[in-house]
Amino acid sequence: MLQLSPTLCVRVLAAVLLAGSSAFAADLCAKVMDYGRMPLPAASVNAANLRTGESYVAKSDKSGTACFLGLPEGLYSVEASLSGFLHVRYYPVRVVAMAKQRISFWLPLGEITEGGLGDESTLSGTLVQAGSPVEAAEICIAATARTPRKCTVTNDLGEYALQVPAGMYTVEVHTRDGKEHMSKVDVSAPGIYRNRLSVDGEKNEPHN
What we know:
Elements: H1 6-22, E1 25-34, E2 44-49, E3 55-59, E4 65-72, E5 74-81, E6 88-95, E7 100-107, E8 120-129, E9 132-133, E10 138-141, E11 150-153, E12 159-165, E13 167-174, E14 180-187, E15 192-198, E16 205-207
Parallel strand pairs: 1-7, 8-15
Antiparallel strand pairs: 1-4, 2-3, 2-5, 5-6, 8-9, 8-12, 10-11, 10-13, 13-14, 15-16
């Protein structure tokens, strides 16, 4: 009968465990840009697993892209930061096993001080229709006594970002096929806010 040495058994077991763990891993790439959609190299991107608390860090290259290869599947908080810009954080980001995923960050100009983010907040999020992202839709906040009307356009992932002072805002959505939607968003304190918008009757849920 064939007998395996203890050393060979350990090697075989390690190979099996490694193959099993890679089956539950995924690749996640983040594109980091400024508000003019210019890539930001040398930005730090931190992906923290919301279940285990384990963090992974990557730096963006000349194209503004930072990638995590072989990331364990699960829910993550992903934050991008660079000196001279405010930090932006997305959560939860679902990393699916054996998949290649990408997200985009727009970093607004500014510095985080000991007292916080100052008077400015970043209102960002994703626009969906029937569960799919809506590209090239116009996202606006209505003018208030403190803030003029501001608009931006969603990217290919349905993502948008606007920098605003803290306050209550009406968010307007205008899609290329003529759909419109309005919702109220409470940016009650300076910070980074995420808001999921829908143009097909789903509930809009803000997060901060």
